[in-house]
Amino acid sequence: MNLRLIVLASKNIRNRGIRSWLTMIGIFIGVAAVVALISMGQGLQAAVTGQFAALDPDKLIVTNVDTGFGPPGSTAVKKLNEHDKELIESVNGVDVVVQRLIRTVSFEYNDKTDFKYVANIPTEKEAIEVIYDALNLELEKGRLLDENDRRKVILGHNYLSDDFGKSIRVGKKVIIQGEEFEVIGFLKKTSTFILNGIIIMPDEDLREILNIGDEFDILVVQVKDRNELPDIKDILEKKIRKDRDLDEGEDDFSIQTPEQSIQTINTILDTINLVIVGIAAISLLVGGIGITNTMYTSVLERIKEIGIMKSVGAKNSDILTLFLAESALLGLVGGIIGVIIGLALAYAAASGISTAFGGLEFSISLNVPFLIFAALFSVFVGTISGVFPALQASKLNPVDALRS
Amino acid sequence: MVTKSKQRTLIELKNVKKYYFMGDNVVKAVDGITLKIKEKEFIAIMGPSGSGKSTAMHMVGSLDIPTSGKIFLDGVDISLLTESRLAQIRGKKVGFIFQSFNLIPNLTAKENVMIPMTFQNQSTEESLAKAEELLELVDLGDRMEHYTNELSGGQQQRVAIARALANDPEVILADEPTGNLDTKTGEMVIDFLKKLNQQGKTIIMVTHDSDLAKKHADKIYWLKDGKIEKITKR
Q1: What is d(CA A116, CA A106) in angstroms, rounded to the nearest whole number?
Q2: Which of A48, A243, B124, B200 has the highest Cβ tally under 10 A?
Q3: What ipTM, to 2 d.p.?
């Protein structure tokens, strides 16, 4: 490789000024998109996985799911009920089954109303401990709910900040769905952003204010020995199928281990990443065509220059190298700028998301090998894009070229 | 003038023809030229426009390949060479000077002079030193960093002369070197060529200015319709 040719190539690119920049925009938008989205994607994966970190490995999550056969809408999903709970409790190895409800309610304080998530706290002492343990709840102020509390709530960390014009404190009364509740505690800030905005109230109270009968959203199954978790899962599946008179494959319920929940989310995130990379690939392709176009124009403009270089001893391969170096440099500079812009976008978006979801720890993973790969891939795109124009330039007949 | 009979033959053309096929027409740009050019000669190729003198010069400079006939450059049949070998030989043995200077815009005088050395894989330091030396030689020591559009015609042609000398070639091919210059600067350029000839370079000058040719050249080939019409010696 002739280093002087690369120096010459970079000089030629600088001489084309604004046209070089415009050409590189095509490339760096593509690279920036890939870098931003991949960096955020990894951050998103970490953040979402973090939401499940609270789940312990000795618990199963039972939910009912849409079979896909019923009419669309939530009514198609039959809710879990007391009968299901008893059925699960009857299985050997099951320690405690906790019923969970997660709903939205209106929350009023200081004459201001907002809609918030509410979760129930079971009324049996054992089950309460399972939930506190599973969600890893820690108090910032006040005390936790116990089995004897009624018309009392614990609030997430976000309620401590001044959202309602007047700060809420322990002992204050708030209105939930038109009913008065006493605040007895606040949770510590957690990485699980839903918990930071949640209202936790006794199961009976929640059923009363929302008029909920015999139904549960989720059943959390605590097993006695975590090694038996997979076996118990199998037994539960068979039992519920038999109870509901279903064949295998017709399940209208789902039993997930915490690992499975994370896997499910990761599969979805992977798919999203794939789509994003696909879009970015199209952008890079368009950017590459932009480089090809610029290089063709450049060859046309510089036919005479090519003739001169050939007359002073340039081989076809020298001209080829010169033009390929130019398109590769366009790719390289475009790629480096793309990486920088992509990272900047990712950090900006991450801080935006973190602020919007208060407490969601959304951090950008700085994957250096990936960033280097992105820049190198851009060089590759640039080089490939320059192949045809460079071949055309190298094959020019020197006499014809000089005459132009 | 010393006798030149013992000088070796540098360039030899044997019945060289160059035809261009344009549809049904055949343009016979060069139609059977045979000549020998010896080292250290100052040759002029004369003729009206369309006589084929530029085409002949391009082939002498191995820039173009004949349709038929043979061209020997320093004993090597150039029609048998690969493109890259031909380019290599051209860059090393032949220096071109053109009527319209043909410098590369966007490059400084010094960078223009370095270009031929770039293609001979010379190191940057060597090329830089040589380019500076050559520009001093053509009295442009104070114009090295100037871009071509900042130079007058005469200065540009002197940069072109420096470029032609970059790889220390044996032959300088000058295609109407004074064509775009006023009389005074034209004379200066010719003086440079004379000086180079005295230092041992073979000069082949294409021109339509018969006074210029008669005054300076050892030998003049008069071309007409692609053929040598006559040869005159001084």
Answers
A1: 6
A2: A48
A3: 0.89
